TrEMBL record:
SUPFAM superfamilies: TPR-like. The lineage of its organism: Eukaryota, Fungi, Fungi incertae sedis, Chytridiomycota, Chytridiomycota incertae sedis. Residues 1-17 form the signal peptide. It holds the Pfam family Glyco_transf_61. Keywords: Glycoprotein, Glycosyltransferase, Signal, Transferase. This is Glycosyltransferase 61 catalytic domain-containing protein. Residues 388-592 form the Glycosyltransferase 61 catalytic domain. InterPro entries: Glyco_transf_61_cat, Glycosyltransferase_61, TPR-like_helical_dom_sf. GO terms for molecular function: glycosyltransferase activity.
Length: 665
């Protein structure tokens, strides 16, 4: 969502034609126009608090000026005062209870925020989901002829995960408006419909529609929809990779972003996929240092792992090459977008994300506000950084490796560290609050405006990143849209060593005696890819395994989570970020996992392989798709899970594999 005020000159003129008191200087037309100009100027300068004061004063003087509500509310959206946004729009609908346009704008702004979860967190803490949806429904009831009201309501239902209801509204939209709206509006709505079909698990239908759209209008955005459908619905799909690759290259080629020479003087942009090749070709623009020369390209994993309990999942990766891990230095560079997209000198660097780099939030406008960081800086920004998985095994180890290979070295005391905005996730806050980071705490700077600004580093930008080998003998990483999120073995080992060390320094590391027991079940109760009768399943596990079973809810502190999993013999759960806690375990621990269906993301199998472990994949239990919820477990399926856990438990003690305390870690 781009920041843009609603500037209604005609309404402004009409409103100001008859001020309440011509003799009252505070309400003269001249004063009101000056006040409105000050509000607009404050908004343009990103001074949203001042804009709020001016729009609020305008409301006091002109309470019947409808468009002022919209301007006022929007200024608070971009000022991140979401409480004020809702209060202002509640005033608007109270003032205009029968105006469909007011409800529609209210609904559209909520939907826009929900569609940007990295920018607008926990909207349901301000209004209930029902209240938000009801706002949209009210717009359709007040104006049943509005195609936009129906489409926005359908989009809202999709965003709050009411996929079936969203599909119903979209199908009603096609019946009501499909033959009367413009082709542009028809295909735009059809694209949104394709997306909700993906989220409902109807992949073949979604793909057929996406193909129909591209045949009609092969824009880069429409090809991007093909990429999205294929990578969510089709495991290890080369066709999806091709669409993603095309989307990336075409998007960047269409950029006309211009600026100083170290941004782009010509406005003609290119994609750079490989840091080491770029360093060889353009040494003046970046340099690289290989951090794992003795292990890069090694093979790890096992052909005998995993063990399937039920049907075998085709294409399940078992062997992997160690990636090439680099310390990269850009003498000058820029950063923008949620994934922290490095760019400059007319070049966009994809880094480890390759063709699956998410460029949707890349700021391609030449007018984007620039924030200059006047220091040498290292960054750890990654895709979906507020997600627990991406923080724990992608972003955090980058910080740890930067500490070892850059920040702690002589003459580098001036280098700052760019972190995600404060408060974006409690596990990020808790990790960075540890005393282990006291030595660099005064170097922290924050990436507070990823989607509304471009950060400029004229004195240099450092990062740690990794790329997969050009020749992938095992075909597990090459052209794999999800494989870009599997960190190298070196990176995972760095994460484990950090947390084990932190526990030992506090006397919290599990001793041999304290290791007796511990099957940890990772709960996903009440969330996507969880079991609706999980409470019943947990009772079954407690009845069967007694004090050997612990339930992990994700509400524990970071050190407590690390302690629990460091003592785990068996980790159990359905596919979700909580399984990344396997990274805390000690050698010999076994993972028991219920996969997705289709199982498109093999990150936890890779995690186990990186540590030389074993895992069971229970396909006997019906899986859920990426956005779905598992069916309720039957008693027979609970017993299958219980039998598999017992089998995994026995594995720990076979062939001398019992977990022991490892002081050397």
């Amino acid at each position: 969502m781009r920041a843009s005020l609603l500037l209604f000159a005609a309404t402004l003129t009409t409103t100001f034609a008859k001020p309440n008191s011509a003799s009252n200087e505070s309400q003269s037309r001249e004063y009101l126009e000056r006040l409105y100009g000050q509000a607009k100027a404050a908004y343009s300068n990103r001074d949203f608090e001042t804009a709020h004061k001016h729009f609020s004063r305008l409301h006091d003087l002109l309470p019947d000026w409808k468009d002022n509500y919209f301007n006022w509310a929007l200024s608070q959206v971009f000022g991140k005062r979401i409480d004020r946004f809702f209060d202002i729009m509640d005033m608007a609908v109270k003032q205009y209870p029968n105006d469909s346009d007011v409800y529609l704008k209210y609904c559209n702004n909520i939907a826009s925020m929900l569609n940007q979860p990295n920018d607008f967190l926990n909207l349901d803490s301000y209004r209930t989901v029902k209240d938000m949806v009801d706002t949209c429904i009210k717009a359709t009831l007040l104006d049943p002829t509005s195609s936009l009201a129906y489409a926005t309501t359908a989009a809202m239902l999709n965003l709050v995960r009411e996929y079936k209801h969203s599909i119903d509204v979209y199908e009603d939209w096609f019946k009501r408006f499909g033959s009367t709206v413009s082709r542009k509006e028809y295909f735009s709505t059809l694209t949104s419909f394709s997306q909700v079909l993906v989220q409902d698990g109807q992949f073949d239908r979604a793909y057929k529609i996406a193909e129909e759209i591209v045949a009609e209008d092969p824009t880069v955005d429409n090809v991007g929809q093909l990429c999205y459908v294929r990578k969510i619905g089709y495991p290890l799909d080369k066709k999806g990779w091709k669409f993603c690759n095309e989307t990336l290259y075409r998007s960047v080629a269409e950029y006309s972003l211009k600026g100083s020479n170290d941004l782009c003087g010509t406005g003609k942009w290119r994609v750079a996929l490989n840091y080491s090749e770029e360093a060889a070709t353009h040494p003046e623009l970046l340099t690289t240092t290989l951090l794992n020369p003795s292990t890069a390209y090694e093979t790890y994993g096992s052909l005998s792992d995993p063990t399937f309990v039920g049907p075998v999942i085709p294409k399940y990766p078992r062997l992997f090459h160690e990636r090439f891990v680099y310390l990269i230095h850009h003498p000058s560079a820029y950063l923008t977008g949620h994934p922290g997209i490095v760019h400059g000198h007319c070049t966009l660097y994809t880094g480890g994300k390759h063709a699956n780099l998410d460029i949707r939030s890349f700021q391609s406008s030449s007018d984007t506000h620039i924030i200059t960081i006047p220091h040498r800086t290292a960054h750890i920004i990654v895709h979906q950084i507020r997600n627990y998985y991406h923080w724990l095994v992608e972003s955090l180890p980058k910080l740890l490796l930067l500490q070892t290979h850059l920040l702690s070295l002589p003459n580098n005391e001036d280098i700052k560290i760019l972190l995600p905005e404060k408060g974006i996730a409690r596990w990020i806050n808790a990790t960075l609050a540890l005393p282990e980071f006291d030595a660099v705490r005064d170097r922290f700077v924050y990436y507070d405006h990823p989607t509304t600004a471009r950060y400029y580093f004229p004195k240099g930008l450092y990062e740690v990143d990794w790329i997969h080998p050009a020749v992938d003998v095992h075909r597990s990483l090459d052209k794999n849209a999800w494989g870009v999120f599997w960190p190298p073995r070196m990176v995972l080992e760095t994460t484990r060593e950090f947390w084990h060390g932190a526990l030992k320094r506090r006397g919290m590391f599990p001793t041999v005696e304290r290791l007796r027991g511990c099957i940890v079940y990772v709960s996903r109760e009440g969330t996507v890819r969880g079991f609706p009768n999980e409470g019943e399943f947990m009772e079954y596990l407690k009845e069967r395994f007694g004090d050997r079973i612990l339930v992990h809810t994700g509400k524990e502190g970071m050190l407590e989570q690390a302690r629990v999993f460091a003592g785990a013999k068996v980790v159990v759960g359905s596919h979700g970020a909580g399984l990344v806690n396997y990274v805390y375990t000690q050698p010999g621990a076994v993972l028991v996992m219920v996969p997705m269906d289709p199982h498109i993301e093999f990150c936890f199998g890779h995690l186990v392989a990186a540590f030389g472990g074993r895992h069971y994949v229970v396909t006997e239990v019906p899986g859920a798709h990426y956005f779905g919820t598992y069916a309720a477990l039957t008693r027979e399926q609970m017993e299958v899970m219980g039998d598999t856990i017992e089998r995994a438990w026995r594995d720990v003690f076979e062939d001398g594999n019992e977990i022991t305390s490892h002081d050397e870690l």
